[in-house]
Amino acid sequence: MSETVQSPASERPEPRERVQDALAEITALLRRHRLVEGLVHEQLKHVPLDDHDERGAVVESLVTRQNKAELQRKLDRLHPADIAYILEALPLDERLYIWELVKADRDGEILLEVSEPVRESLISSMDTDELVAAAESLDAEEIAELAPDLPQEVMDDVFSSLPMEEREELRAAMSFDDDMVGALMDFEDLQVRPDVTLEVVLRYLRRFEELPSQTDQIFVVDRKETLLGVLPMNTLIVSDPETLVADVMRPPVITLRQHEKADDAASAFERYDLVSAPVVDTNDRLVGRVTVDEVLDFVRERGEESMLAQAGLREEEDVFASVWKSFQNRWAWLAVNLVTAFIASRVIGVFEGSIEKLVALAALMPIVAGIGGNSGNQTITMIVRAVALGQVSRGHARGLIRKEIIVALINGLVWGGVMGLFATLLYKDVALGLIMVLAMTLNLMLAASMGVLIPMTMLKLGRDPALGASVLITAVTDSGGFFIFLGLGTLFLIR
Question: Rounded CA gap, 384 and 388, in Å?
Answer without folding.
Answer: 6
